[in-house]
UniProtKB/TrEMBL annotation:
It comes from the Bacteria. The lineage of its organism: Bacteria, Pseudomonadati, Thermodesulfobacteriota, Desulfovibrionia, Desulfovibrionales. The keyword Flavoprotein applies. This is FAD-dependent pyridine nucleotide-disulphide oxidoreductase. Belongs to the class-III pyridine nucleotide-disulfide oxidoreductase family. Its cofactor is FAD. It comes from Pseudodesulfovibrio profundus. Pfam families: Pyr_redox_2, Pyr_redox_dim, Rhodanese. GO terms for molecular function: oxidoreductase activity. Keywords: FAD, Flavoprotein, Oxidoreductase, Redox-active center. SMART domains: RHOD. InterPro entries: FAD-bd_OxRdtase (IPR050260), FAD/NAD-bd_sf (IPR036188), FAD/NAD-binding_dom (IPR023753), FAD/NAD-linked_Rdtase_dimer_sf (IPR016156), Pyr_nucl-diS_OxRdtase_dimer (IPR004099), Rhodanese-like_dom (IPR001763), Rhodanese-like_dom_sf (IPR036873). Residues 480-563 form the Rhodanese domain.
């Protein structure tokens, strides 16, 4: 029997659900409404249009075969009726009607439905600051924002930019300004690191250091109190600690799900916003589905509601909804929280829980950090990759993996491999023995993921006792106390420059340890360092064999220390 489907929202999930349903039920009617004139665009590509990587804003609204996804396209190609500049004002669940208003003419109408899809997305979080409406202050929400920002930069009058927020959009926009346009760029973040709660302080600091090398300045632990202008245009940003001159300001303080209309209709919503759905993407009204950036889904590791506004998520959920509108019973079990963000020629990626998030969720969690080459050591092109694994101590269950490495596919490939397993509650042992495709141009014979699992196993067993680069920083800062003895386990040629600069730096190559035990004190904590942590681990085993008890191996070695920015 033919159905009448109404979709509120035409950006990501709405079009996907509408088109999937029409393929399954060509004889049914689908009406999609959106209050904007722009629909079905790739919002995640906006920073790359601003940077110039994407040459034309129209590309964000086109198919892969260069057809503009406008109402004509949806009608002729997909069989979906689209009403742009049409705002949903009320959902009457009893009558099964959506009341709408044309935002240009004010004309009102009512759209009856058999089933309704709520796909209203999310809106940028506004800070309600003095001066937030000045010319040159922007959010990053749609292609119109992108065009306005890029035109402002292209005019040649933008020399200094301030970005509020060090999350996904904030970092991507910082790269766009500093790298492609050479603009003096500052990022103000209220927390103490980039990508708060998503990655550890160690990985965050590595990413920060890299971006600072690219010309981006960071100001952490500061809140913006006002934005000031001259002649109606932005001129400066006032924070709780300083004043920053600015020709353009980007507010990237996160997004808020557009769930007000759903709340008014009596649909179950989260206390912080967002429509709550079950595994079939249904709301508490069986005739209404919701998904994408306006929905709250289950986090498969915490069991709590999760808000993950990503285009990939919206498209997958849209297909699920399209199936279920047609009577299928397709499930969307939930999310583990996977992400990647490009930072100049590197990237920061992760899946599952960071150590901070795992502890907040009640897990007795630990983490280990590893740096290793992303392919065979003898292959001419190779790069160091940093991975951190979070796991539950008693059960050995893997809770998440985050990493920092090149902007190619190597890092995100490892993250995706773990992401696929997380919903099945893998243990350290399964990562240690994970089967991965091997060839020297692509990986090492013992892949970095396998080694990471081995490192976690050794940490639980107490065989590999150590800290990451942040822990080393604390130890190095306290070296004048004389409580620690720093031993560089590399060969003399690698260590002698540091020994010349630092009397506290000692060199005993790992292969010479048994012959030079008299140089290493037993009454101090012995801090072992090598290039990546492998030889220092061997040195730790050797010293433990000779009765040394207070040994600290630096996970990631000098590679991690340098990426973290420790000054030796």
């Amino acid at each position: 029997m033919a159905q009448n489907i109404v979709v509120i929202g035409g950006v990501a999930l709405g079009p996907k659900a509408a088109c999937r349903f029409k393929r399954l039920e060509p004889g049914s009617t689908v009406t999609m409404i959106d209050q904007s004139s722009l629909i079905s665009y790739g919002g995640c590509g906006i920073p790359y249009y601003v940077s110039g990587d994407v040459s034309d804003a129209k590309e964000l609204c086109e198919t892969s075969f260069h057809m503009l996804r406008d109402p004509k396209f949806f009608k002729e190609v997909k069989g979906v009726d689209v009403q742009i500049l049409t705002k949903a004002t009320r959902i009457d669940r009893e009558k099964k009607v959506v009341e709408v208003e044309n935002v240009t003419t004010g004309e009102c109408a009512a759209l009856p439905y058999d089933k309704l899809v709520y796909a209203t997305g999310a809106s940028p979080r506004k800070l309600n600051l003095p001066g937030e409406d000045l010319k040159g202050v922007s959010y990053v929400c749609n292609p119109e924002d992108a065009t306005r920002i890029r035109e402002g930069i292209s005019s040649g009058v933008v020399n200094k930019a301030v970005i509020v927020g060090a999350g996904f959009i904030g970092l991507e926009m910082a790269e766009a300004f500093a790298d492609m346009w050479g603009i003096e760029t500052s990022v103000v973040e209220i927390t103490d690191q980039v990508m708060p709660r998503l990655v550890s302080p160690a990985l965050a600091t590595m990413a920060q250091q890299h971006m600072e090398e690219g010309g981006v300045d960071f100001y952490f632990g500061e809140s913006v109190t006002a934005i000031e202008g001259e002649d109606g245009k932005v001129a400066r940003v006032i924070t709780s600690k300083r004043t920053l001159e600015a020709d353009v300001v980007i507010i990237a303080a996160g997004v808020i799900p557009n769930s007000k209309l759903a709340e008014e209709a009596g649909l179950a919503c989260h206390e912080r916003g967002g429509v709550i759905v079950d595994e079939f993407m249904r709301t508490n009204d069986p005739n209404i589905y919701a998904g994408g950036d306006c929905a709250i889904v289950k986090h498969l590791l915490t069991g709590e509601g999760a808000f993950l506004p990503l285009g990939s998520m919206a498209n997958r959920q849209g297909r699920v909804i399209g199936n279920n509108l047609a009577g299928r019973e397709t499930r969307f079990d939930g999310v583990v929280g996977s992400f990647v963000v490009k930072l100049f020629e590197t990237s920061l990626a992760g899946t599952g829980l960071s150590l901070e998030a795992a502890k907040a969720a009640g897990y007795d969690a630990l983490s280990v950090l590893l740096i290793q080459l992303d392919r065979a050591h003898f292959y001419p092109t190779k790069e160091l990759m940093t991975l951190e694994m979070v796991f539950e101590k008693e059960s050995r269950r893997v809770l998440g993996v985050q990493g920092f490495g090149s902007s190619g596919d190597a890092l995100v490939g490892r993250i995706n491999a773990v992401a696929a397993l997380l919903k099945m509650n893998p243990t350290i042992d399964e990562i240690s023995n994970m089967e991965l495709a091997y060839s020297p141009p692509f990986s090492a014979a013992m892949d970095i993921l396998n080694t990471l699992g081995n490192l976690a196993d050794n940490a639980i067993l107490g065989i590999n006792q150590g800290v990451g680069p942040d822990g080393f920083q604390e130890l190095w800062n306290q070296r004048e106390s004389g409580d620690c003895y720093f031993v560089d386990c590399r060969e003399k040629a690698d260590a002698e420059e540091l020994m010349k600069r630092n009397p506290d730096w000692h060199n005993v190559p790992q292969g010479e340890i048994y012959n030079r035990l008299d140089e290493i004190p037993k009454d101090k904590s012995v801090v072992l360092v090598c290039n990546t942590g492998a030889r220092s681990y061997e040195a730790q085993i050797m010293l433990q064999d000779k009765g040394y008890e207070n040994i600290i191996n630096i996970h990631g070695g000098m590679a991690a220390i340098n990426k973290y920015g420790v000054k030796l």
